[in-house]
Amino acid sequence: MKPLQIRSVAYSVPETVVTNQDLTKLYDTSDEWIYTRTGIKERRIVSGNQNAADLGYEAAQKALAKAGVNPDELDLIIAASSAPPNLYPAIACDIQARLGITTKIPAFDITAACSGLIYGMQIARGFIGSGIYKKILIVATDNNSRLVDWEDRGTSILFGDGAGAMVVTESTDGVDDILSIDIQSDGSIGEYIKYTMPGKTCPLVEPNDIEPSHIFMNGKEVYKFVVKVLPDYIANMLEESGIKADEIDYLIPHQANQRIIDAVQQRLGYPDEKVISNITYYGNTSAASVPIALAEGVEKGTVKLGSTAILCGFGAGMTWGAAIVRLREGIC
Ligand code: COA
């Protein structure tokens, strides 16, 4: 396989902050209840016409600038989103147009929920590794605030909006930045987190319209499943790669619930400074959470570049995946 280089990672979040205290205006809850169960204190929420494609475009622009890659050099755009403004056209096609790319490169969306970035990286690795494409933009963007039921206090407390973007290319120096990567799914438990597309029935066939939709989540089952599977999954991945846990500098996990992050931290025996968490300020931004945690961590100085990290995601599907990566100087 040809080696892959991570050239840049960037993020974009909406300006509006909604605190736990704000949510008490919607239903019976409290900052204390939400914080102790999830680690979340506030989240960013889009307003007006802003949507996942806009956030993704902003993150993409930043990532391309950071990478020093001109949009016209791209061979492929992959957007990972499960809360897009439109089912089609794809966010990736929209971003292709907004970046002013006139060449007819392929651009498509993938739906792997909160595992979206890792799934996108694995797809990109296949294309770069085989020599089919050399320069790929991966955008991971979600806007779940438009899909949740804001009367459902068990689910709407969790989500925030945001986007991340990563530029990957064939390695310029022969060094592969992906030390190991794996993606998995189990469709038999797909009912745990679900969003059914709203729509209309054909009046000639059935009289009733389909109910308006929102995210359904069985939080307890999701929690139990992830805590059971994820810590061992990452520990086994390290073992199979012949890498000792203490050789890796950071764990940058999907930001779904602080208690889930703690469970993985405990299994790997990592001290707090190795584990990157910003869930307190962004909530669960779904596919965007890993790139936001990474790029924001670099901005704040909690992630030092010239290091290695385990990135991992999990979410609806159920899907999950992890990548052990090199974080080169200058990528954020
Ligand atoms: N404020 C106050 N009370 C709430 C509440 C809220 N926001 N949401 C639920 N409750 C109540 C419930 O009504 C229930 O009350 P009851 O016992 O009187 O019926 C009680 O709190 C416990 O509810 P439950 O749903 O069992 O809570 P929980 O301990 O499982 O915590 C989550 C709920 C969502 C925080 C937790 O299940 C979770 O984080 N799961 C993982 C979800 C996840 O990560 N999803 C994304 C994956 S990508």
Entry keywords:
332 residues, alpha/beta, Peroxisomal Thiolase, Chain A, domain 1, 4-stranded mixed sheet, 13 strands, 23% strand
Domains (count)? 2
Structural class: alpha/beta
Shape: globular
Say which molecules are bound, naming each kind only once: coenzyme A
Secondary-structure element order, N to C: EEHHEHEHEHEEEEEHEHHHEE
Radius of gyration: 19 Å
Distance between the termini: 26 Å
Brief summary of the model shown:
The chain has nine helices and 13 strands. The chain has 332 residues and is an alpha/beta fold. The chain is globular and about 60 Å long.
How would you describe this protein?
This protein has 332 residues and is α/β, with parallel strands linked by helices. The chain has 2 domains: 4-170, Thiolase/Chalcone synthase (Peroxisomal Thiolase, Chain A, domain 1, 3-Layer(aba) Sandwich); 178-327, Peroxisomal Thiolase, Chain A, domain 1, CATH 3.40.47.10. The chain has helices spanning 20-23, 31-38, 52-67, 91-98, 116-129, 219-241, 258-268, 279-282, 289-300; strands at residues 4-12, 17-19, 42-44, 76-80, 107-110, 135-142, 162-170, 178-185, 193-194, 216-217, 250-253, 307-315, 319-327. A 5-stranded mixed sheet has the order 1-7-6-4-5, sandwiched between helices. Strands 8-13-12-11 form a 4-stranded mixed sheet, with helices on both faces. The protein has a two-stranded antiparallel sheet with strand order 2-3. The longest helix has 23 residues, at 219-241. The protein is globular, with a radius of gyration of 19 Å. The structure holds coenzyme A (COA). Coenzyme A binds next to helix 2, helix 6 and strand 12.
